[in-house]
Each structure stands twice: as structure tokens, then as C-alpha cells.
Amino acid sequence: MRWPVVIIIPLGLACAAAAREFTVMVYNVENLHDADGVAAYDEFKPPAYTPAHLCAKVHNIAEAVSRVDGGRGPDVILFQEIEIDQTPESGADYLAVLQRHSGQKLDELLRAPLAHDLAGLPAEAWLLKAFEDRGLKGYSVVAGDDRPGRQEDGYQRAIKCVVFTRFPVKAVRNHSAPNARNILEVLLDVDGHPLSVFDNHWKSGAGDPAMEAIRVQDARVLRACIDGILRDDPQADIIIGGDFNEQYNQRLRYPIMRETGINDVLGSQGNELAIRGAARSLYNLWFELPETQRGSDVYRGEWGTLIQMIISRGLYDCRGIQYVDNSFAVLRVPGLNADALGQPVRWSAAGPAGSGFSDHFPVYAHFRTVEDNRPDRWLALEQPSVREETAAQVNKIDYTALAVEQVALTWAAIPAGADLRDGTYTGAIFLVEGTVHDLKPFTIEFRGKTYEIYSPVRGLRDDLARRFHAGQKIRFYGELGTYRGRWQFVVQSAAWLR
């Protein structure tokens, strides 16, 4: 396989010759955009999105990442949903710009109006600066080469994949397909051992067969890349990660689909021992967790596994790089990126600077270098996963079982003069006592402001509209949030009505 030669300038790479353990993370950061005011979507233009919003968002991402490896952070991070710079010519030499401002903190730099040389920096440059400020050092940045413009179907190209790595980068390839984001392939040198990582962000709509057809196309492109590597070395070390917008058990969860990208084409599966043979080369790390703990995102009261980390058979032999058995985990930190219900605290642009993290929890796993040079020997596994699933596991959140009254805030508990819409309370659960304002849409007056009432429970909103009328008092538990700029309380269960 011939690779293009690339030169990537790192900010202080850390290298060591001895065997080591390291961590790889996959993190969808939910639409991280830069601050130049030029964006494919209106919600990332002023005044809705400002340098203050960018500052808060990258600070929060860095804080979440710092919770891994004792504050040092992962050595390799596969990011998704970082903006394709709509003015790419303005930030071409961002490392030099950051170096000129190395004596200033992020908060000082992201003050409107931005200095001329800072205004055009891409989102990944600001994230790198936030990492430096937080003490997360030594990363090189590899960004997908997706360009501004429109896809074949007319939709704007807005976001790309980006890899942060502390290991030397030997080569980079971008793999494209119609109506899809580029798959970013990066070949790393881990103390002399080659490691291929693939960063993916497939088309959204996990349950939509039309979108699945596009994801199948992505899977074919990715599978061809992997097969090319495995032809040269059947036990090559490969990590595949990203937001696949598919469940780990997609084939079983959506039987209406004739062919799925992740299971049928890519070959992701859960028999950890089977990859030692010739027929199966990949193992999905979601199978390392008990079924009830599999979840990185929530949609309509169900946990999803759209974020994936999949590894090749070479990471189980005693040569080069090896997976650390049972080290796969979801980065869910109560009080930080997880709310009172244990769900992701997603990003919200509400308030002067916004708040929150992402609608996805990151996932990560540990790996180590091994010097045995024995590809004929395999890692000894403790309770290896050998399940061949026959039924779809769907983890639903039982909101009726939650002690919502113990976590809900009352108005008396809020400081005098507090603004619920400044971002501080986004994602919090309130005991709401208000007056019905309108029925279509169903809105209430609460503390002098109007909020929509939304529920993912089928029929509950219609039931509320039948039970209540304008001007009537209503009392319920609701989770404060925004949707397309509109403030709302989300009622997760009929049991939340009082």
C-alpha cells in the first residue's frame, strides 16, 4: 500500500523507547464551531454563537478529557463534529499564531472583537489551545480534508473528523464517498510499532433505511481500506472509532433493514475469540460491558451505542500493540457531563456563553506496547465475550423508577434574581408550578416566562392538551432544555405529572 507523505508539526511530542500503556478515546463533541461568524448553519453565527460560546465549549471538552489517566488525558483522541472551516485560507498557519499568543490564556484571546490574526483560526486550533491551558500537552492535530461546499444531494458540508495524537504521524489518508463525510485514516508510530486508526462519522438516522444505504456505502469504503491493510499483514494493529450513527447490534435492532453497514458489511461482531481465526477480523468493544451498561447517548428514552470503538485481531497477539483486556469504558462523570438522570449534558448555546458538553458520552480504552514479537501467541482473556446475539438488546430508561422528587429543584432553592435561561440550569429537573398559556403548542407561564412542554412519551402531550385549558394551573416535574432556540420543559414520564 502506498501512502502520501505528510509533515505535521507537533506542539512538544512526548516519546519513549520503553514499553508503555496508552489510552485511545472517541468523542463526538456536538458541533464545535470556530468564532469567525462564517458558518453553514445560522445557529453558529452571531449573535447566537459568539467567541464566549466557543470559549465555554472548548473549556468543557478539555475538562471532560482531563478526567482520563489522572489528568493527563488520552494519548489519541478521535473527534467528530468539528466544523469544516468555511474560511480555510484564514487559518492555514494556526500553530504559528498560537505560538505568538502562547503567553495568553484562552479567556483572554476569545474576547470580542477578536484580534485580526485570531479571527480566522479553525475550531481545532481553539480546542488545542484549551488543551494546553488545561495541561493536556504534546498533541499533534490531524484534520480531515473535507472542504466547504455542498454534497451531491445539495446539503452543506459542515463538519469533519479530527485526530489529536501524542504519537508521531507517519501518513494520513482521507477516504470519500458521495453524500458522506470523509473517513480519516492516520498511521501512527507507537514506539516503533505501526498503528492504523480510522476516524468515522457516518450519516445520521440510525433507524432510517434510506440513511442506512449511505452508511452501507461508508462501510464498504472502510472495509476495503481494512482489507488492504490485512492483505499485507493479517495481524496488523487497527483501531476503528467514531460516531457511526448505528447501534452495535444494528442488524437485530432494526430488522427492517436488508443490509447494515456496521454488522453485515464492516463485520463488527461480539465473539472475542473468533477473531483469532481467518473468518472474522474485527471485534466491537461494546461487548466488553454488561448489556445493561451499553449506552453513550439517549434518544426517546432509549440508550444508544452510536459511538463505536472496534479493534482488529492484531491487538490480541503478543506483537506490537495489544488491547488491555476489559479496559473499555464510557466517560460518564456525574455532576460534570452526566445530569441527575445519568444522561449526557448536551451543549446548549443558551445564555451569554452557553453551557454543557455533548449529546454523546466519550468512550475510551487502554492499550499497551509489547516486545515479545510473538504473533503466534494470544493475549490471555478473562471471561472473553463469545456471545452470538439472537435478540436485540434495547436499554430503556425507566423514568418511573427514578426518585425524581429527590433530585428536582424547587423555585425556593434557586437564588434570588437567578435567570433560568443563562445556561446554569440547563439539564436540571424542576418541580414546575405554572399556568397553561396555550395548547398549540402546549406552553406554560412559569415565573414570568413562557416555556414549551415536550414529552418523548407518545400521546402524552396530546393527553395534556385534552386535560388542561389555557389559564389553568399545572404542576409537574420537567427537565429544562432548549430545542431550536425555544425553551422547554421535558416531561419524561406520565408519572412526572403531579
Walk me through what this model shows.
With 498 residues, the chain is an alpha+beta fold. The chain folds into 2 domains: 21-378, Deoxyribonuclease I, Chain A, CATH 3.60.10.10; 399-496, Beta Barrel (OB fold (Dihydrolipoamide Acetyltransferase, E2P)). Helix content is 17%, strand content 28%. The protein has 10 helices and 20 strands. The chain has helices spanning 51-65, 94-100, 106-109, 116-119, 123-134, 209-232, 250-253, 261-265, 404-407, 460-467, and strands at residues 21-32, 76-83, 140-143, 159-165, 169-175, 183-190, 193-201, 238-243, 282-284, 297-299, 302-304, 307-312, 317-323, 329-330, 363-378, 429-439, 442-446, 449-454, 473-483, 486-490. Strands 1, 2, 3, 4, 13, 14 and 15 form a 7-stranded mixed beta sheet that branches. Helix 1 crosses helix 5. Mean pLDDT is 91; it is low at 1-17.
Helix % is 10-25%
Reported for the largest beta sheet, the result is: 7 strands, mixed
End-to-end distance: 65 Å
- Average pLDDT, all residues: 91
Write the element-wise H/E pattern from the N-terminal end onward: EHEHHHHEEEEEHEHHEEEEEEEHEEEHEE
From the 3D coordinates, which CATH architecture of the largest domain would you assign?
Answer: 4-Layer Sandwich
The CATH class label of the largest domain is: Alpha Beta
Taken as a percent bin, the fraction of beta residues is 25-35%
Number of helices: 10
Q: How many discrete structural domains? A: 2
CATH-assigned fold name of the largest domain = Deoxyribonuclease I, Chain A
Q: What is the approximate shape?
A: globular
Briefly note the structural class of the backbone: alpha+beta
- The CATH homologous superfamily of the largest domain corresponds to Endonuclease/exonuclease/phosphatase
* Rg (CA only): 23 Å
Number of DSSP strand runs:
20
The unreliable regions are 1-17
